[in-house]
Amino acid sequence: MTNPLENAKVSLARASLDACVKCTICETQCPVSRVTAKYPGPKFIGPQAERFRSGLSVDQSLDYCSGCAICSTVCPQGVDIAEMIGQARAVMKAEGKMPLRDRLITETELEGKLMTPFAPIANLALANKPIRVIVEKVIGVHRDAPVPQAQSNTFMSWYKEHAKQPRGPFPLGPIVFFHGCAGGYFEVQTSIAAVEVLEHIGYEVIVPKQGCCGLAHQSNGLFKEASKSVRKLVQQLNAAGKDLTIVGSSGSCAGMLRHEAHKIMGLDDPELLEVGSRTVELSEFLLEVVDRGDFPVTELRPWHTTITYHQPCQVKSQGIGMPAIRLMELIPGMTVVESGQACCGIAGTYGLKKEKYEVAQAVGADLFAKVREVNPKLAACETDTCRWQIRKGTGAEVVHPVEIIHRALGLSDRKLD
Predict the structure, then answer these.
(1) CA-based Rg of the chain, rounded to a whole angstrom?
(2) 344: closest CA among 306, 305, 380?
C-alpha cells in the first residue's frame, strides 16, 4: 500500500499537467478568486505553480483554494487542477504547523457522538454569541459560521427500531444505504426520508454500521487520517454485500468514494475502487428508477410552488448532470429554478474558518440573493454543509431533494413551505 503523502508529492494529477494551454477558463469560473485577492486563482496555483513545486516548497496562498473542483470540471483539456492543488496543500500542511482547529473541525462523527446526548444544551451553546466569540478566539472557528443542529436521536437509533417493524414486500431487491456522518447525527430527517422513499418504491434498505468517509480530513490536508477512515468505511459497506448498489444521501461523501479518495489521495486499493464503482448519489439513483419505469410517479401529489435548487460543487464534479431537477419536477405544479451559481462558499469546513469566513460569504452572496428572490421559504440542495450555509445565509428551509419527494408521496405531512 502506498503512502498517501507520497502520492501527494509524486502526484497522479501531474500526468495531466502539460495539457494545460493557459486558456484561463478555470480562472473565469473560480468562485474564490472572484471575491478575494488572497487567492491568485487555479491556473496560477495549479498547473503554473506545479511546474515550480518540488514537493518541498509551496505557496501559502494555495490554502485559500476551497477545493470546490470547479476548475477541474470546466477545464477543456482535462487538467486535474483541483487535484494537484489538494495534493500540494497536503504537502504544505505536513511540512508546516497544522492548526489545532483544522484537526478538530474534521471530526464530524466524534462531534455527533458528543453532542447527541446533550442536544438541547449543545444547541444553546452553539447559539450563544459570547461562547462563539470565545471559540473564535481560541479555536479559530468564526463566530457567525453556520453550525449544525444537534439532534436528540441518531439516525441509527431510529433505523434499529424501524427495522423491527413489519416491512416489505421489496420487489426491487436489496440496496445499501450510505448516510454519511452528518446524516447520522445532524441531518437525521434526510436519512429517514431517504429510507422511507426507497422502501416505498420497493427496495429493501440495508444500513450497515458505518463511520466517516474522511472527506473533511482530506480537504484539510490530513491524508493519513482520511486514508484510514475511508478504508475502514469501505470494509463496513462491503460487509452488507459485495454485489449490492450503495446509495448515498450525502453528495460530497458519495464523491469521496467515487472520485476523491483515488484522484486526490492516490489510493488505488482494489476494494476501494470497487466500492466506488457501486456507489450512486441518491437523486441520480431515484431518477434511474424513474427512467426504468419502477417509480410510482402517479402517486406524487400536486404541489404548486417554485423553489431554487443548488447543486453542490462536489456533486457537480461527479459529472452526473442535474438529476434532482427532473426528479422534483415530476411533482405536478412544482417548478425548479437552478441557482446558476457554482458554489455556496462553505466547501465543507472552509467557510467555518475565521480567516476564510468573509470569503465564503462573498462566494455565496449571489446564491443567497437567488434563493430569497425565487422562494425565501424553501430551497433544495444535496449536501449537508451546503444546506447549513444556505439556511444561515437566507433564512430559508433548505432540504435534500429526497425530502421534497418524501412529502409529495404522502409519506410526511411536514410543512416545508
Answers:
(1) 21
(2) 380
